[in-house]
Automatic annotation (TrEMBL):
This is Plasmid mobilization relaxosome protein MobC. Residues 60-108 form the Bacterial mobilisation domain. Residues 27-52 are annotated as: Disordered. It holds the Pfam family MobC.
Amino acid sequence: MNFTDFVHWLIGQAFMKTQHTVPKETEGIAQPEPEIKKRHRRPEKILQRPAPKADPKLLLELGRIGNNLNQMARALNIIKNANPQEQQKLDIFSVLLVLRGIQTELEQVFPALPKIGRQSPDRLQKQLEDLNVDQALPSIVLAEQDESAY
């Protein structure tokens, strides 16, 4: 069934009366546009203060140190999950002494840093002395004797 343009127009008019839609502009008569209030945006609030300025060389060196520490932690985690024969090749006591040295140096450079450790250095040293630590023994043997020293 074919409808003429007039029939299409009549159907459209009847549809517009029964449906809730936005009416089109009528022929030749322009509807005045309602005035739209413009909203002004508030300036965004700064949620955190800007980072303090620092020497780029210092930041680069700190990044390198952090990278080295991450590599050490990754290696120790790999060894921790390895079989016991591989674990015996690592001297945990030497690793502990190196890490303790790094911590001591950091405390000297930055005294405001919080103290890190489960025990005081004096108590740790006393426990290690009480074990009669033999430097030739692998650290696995030391850990089996007294695990609380670590």
